[in-house]
Amino acid sequence: MLARAARGTGALLLRGSLLASGRAPRRASSGLPRNTVVLFVPQQEAWVVERMGRFHRILEPGLNILIPVLDRIRYVQSLKEIVINVPEQSAVTLDNVTLQIDGVLYLRIMDPYKASYGVEDPEYAVTQLAQTTMRSELGKLSLDKVFRERESLNASIVDAINQAADCWGIRCLRYEIKDIHVPPRVKESMQMQVEAERRKRATVLESEGTRESAINVAEGKKQAQILASEAEKAEQINQAAGEASAVLAKAKAKAEAIRILAAALTQHVRGPWNGDAAASLTVAEQYVSAFSKLAKDSNTILLPSNPGDVTSMVAQAMGVYGALTKAPVPGTPDSLSSGSSRDVQGTDASLDEELDRVKMS
User: Fold this and answer.
1) What string of DSSP letters covers 118-183?
2) Reduced to 3 DSSP states, what percent helix, strand and coil does the chain have, rounded to the nearest 5?
3) I need a labelling partner for 6 at 20 to 30 A (CA). Which of 36, 163, 218, 342 fits?
4) Ordered DSSP codes for 232-286
5) Cα separation of 179 and 100, whole Å?
6) Helix (H, G, I), strand (E, B) or coil at 342
7) Are 36 and 17 in contact (CB under 8 A)?
């Protein structure tokens, strides 16, 4: 009884010293059971048995029989996944910023023999290894990358722990960073940086909107000019077609008028119509119209000796017209062919006389 009490008191003193020194206490397993010859080992537990102070075997879950006095259960290891809180610690980043960071470690004992005899306190050892690995990995990153690359940081810590803890029979399944605390001044500067970045994005978006608006306006003006030019082109084409149609219509009308006038002028030979009187009226009208437009287009005027004598001017014009249109009376083809030369000569003589008369007047 005294020995058991002494052992209990020593265990309490050891746990208190570990807590005072900041060392994580060893995980409390199901305890060290006594050797009762017949033992029942729970599932997901491994009991390490020593015989006369040396390792003998590991009891599997289920029924097990031991020799009293000689066999002793020395260690009880849990094969379940163990969750360990990594205490908060300070670490310095690559850009010399001090951070307070903590995490959670998930591990499992893979080899109970190595976990029992390879290290005194496997959980404490893994916790210290996680802290030192965290500090070394944070020293390789800047402050901005710490927040962006948390997953890669966790993976690096897990790889480093597994390489070192392989001889302890422990495997680290994953590591998660819980909280990252930055100094207040650094937090203020980060907030200012975030605000500046947001203002920059807002300015960029506004400039892009202005650019898009200018592009749209220019594109609209371009399309408007293209449509206006196409409309002007169509208008000019239509106008040219209309002018061409008008010129053609005028030409046809003028040709028809000339044809009718020629037919009317020839009526004095073939019918009772007075063609000479109609021609005289037309010449008089044109003379009066031309006389009314004198000195409108130019200051140089060429006038006859008596511009007010309309009767003489009409008589002269009719004389010229009569000389030009004088022809023999229609008869037989022989008479036409025999008198053609005389008519031409007479016509030339009459034209010369009329021109001389006009020049003298």
Assistant:
1) S-S-HHHHHHHHHHHHHHHHHTTS-HHHHHH-HHHHHHHHHHHHHHHHGGGTEEEEEEEEEEEE--
2) 60, 20, 25
3) 36
4) HHHHHHHHHHHHHHHHHHHHHHHHHHHHHHHHHHTHHHHSS--HHHHHHHHHHHH
5) 8
6) helix
7) no
Q: How far is CA 25 from CA 12, 19, 115, 123, 318, in A?
A: 11, 7, 16, 8, 146
d(CA 44, CA 78): 6
Q: What is the pLDDT of residues 172-218, one digit of tens each?
A: 888 888 888 888 888 788 788 888 888 898 999 989 999 999 999 99
Residue 137: closest CA among 173, 181, 89, 170: 89
Taking the mean position of all CA atoms in its chain, how far away is CA 223?
A: 21
- Reading the block at residue 311, the tokens are 């009767």
CA pair distance 272, 277, nearest whole angstrom:
12
pLDDT by residue (tens digit) across 49-96? 888 888 888 888 888 888 888 888 888 888 888 898 888 888 888 888
- Write the CB contacts of 180 (distance below 8 Å, at least 6 apart in sequence): 99, 100, 101, 146, 147
Residue 294, both tokens: 């004198």
Q: What is the Cα–Cα distance from 204 to 6, expressed in whole angstroms?
A: 75
**Residue for token digits 């995490």?**
103
**75, 77, 58: which is closest to 66 by C-alpha?**
58
Query: CA 320, CA 342: separation in Å to the nearest integer?
Result: 19
For residue 91, give the DSSP letter. Answer: E
41 SS3 class: strand
Distance CA 50, CA 56 (A): 5
DSSP letter at 96 equals S
Q: Distance between CA 307 and CA 326 in Å, rounded?
A: 27
Helices in 67-121 by DSSP H: which ranges? 112-117
